[in-house]
Amino acid sequence: MTLSSGCDFSSNDYLALAGSAALRSAAMDALARGVSPGSGGSRLLRGNCAEHLGLETDAARFFGSESALFVGSGFAANSLVVSTLPQASDLILHDELIHASVHEGMRMARAPCQKFAHNDVDAAADAIARWRAKGGCGTPWIAFETLYSMDGDVAPVDDFASLAERTGAMLLIDEAHAVGVCGPKGRGLAAHLHGCENVVTLVTCGKALGCEGALILAPAVFRDFLVNRGRTFIFSTAPSPLIAAIVRESLSIVANADERRQRLRLIIEHAGERLAPLGIIPSGTHIQPVPIGEDSRTMRIAEALQARGFDIRGIRPPTVPAGTARLRISLTLNIDEAAISEFAIALEDLL
Fold first, then answer.
1. Of 42, 68, 219, 316, which is the most buried if we count CB atoms within 10 A?
2. Planar angle of CA 80, 39, 241, nearest 5 degrees
3. Which fold has domain 7-18+258-350?
């Protein structure tokens, strides 16, 4: 593993909150009022703390969901939801580029699973039709990300919502890389769907929110089912109450961070302008891939950029499909336009 150093082009700290004075102050204030760093047990034993419940109440209100459930990580949240909620008679359909955590949940799921082509709503519809024609009588669950972590492209959220309405499907929406940056007040690209009875949404707290853990937004009946039937929730020590307190503060900051989001938008636009002349198609989002293709060349270029003071990482299989190795440029408020211009010059030289 490469130590983090140099100009940040690799973190998911999109709004530069992770090391902010505001979150450090929130941590100190929480400790001063007696919030414990550790929970001491699972949430069904002694580990259920007031800070967990307060965060869940705040999150449900902010996102417009009936309820929220706080868990230790985004990976845990996705694997918990996918392995617990769909039943044996159901069908799990997932975008072929969905997060690895969803795949882990599917390994433990009772329902059969099937992928569909990336962002292809018609392919998902055809899969449901074929399943019904063969006697499928349960509920289809359609899993997708709103903003994809390796390509930086956006899902056709409303088209998936229309498909779910037509077919009686549930939506499993992963907003990991969108929340904080996208949507009204940073509520995400599917903000208008978070309160719907057929929608379960993942919100990570370790990316734009600058902390750690994850929130599952869902109707209350699904939250209760996860609490009482989800093995990864039942048998895990509860997340730190101190972290929950910090995330509560982060949500408050994000709700009032329009200036930060506008500043990030300007950085995204500048990056597109500097990279387009190199033949790199701008993604239009804060995740910008630089396709290289060959694994070893990708890693050599990444190492050369690191040596020049740019903390950027090469991404290769199995994280991405064979033959699609790339540099993943992450655009955050930890950098500015000057750093992007310097990076573009270095990248042009190496390419």
1. 68
2. 85
3. Aspartate Aminotransferase, domain 1 (3.90.1150)
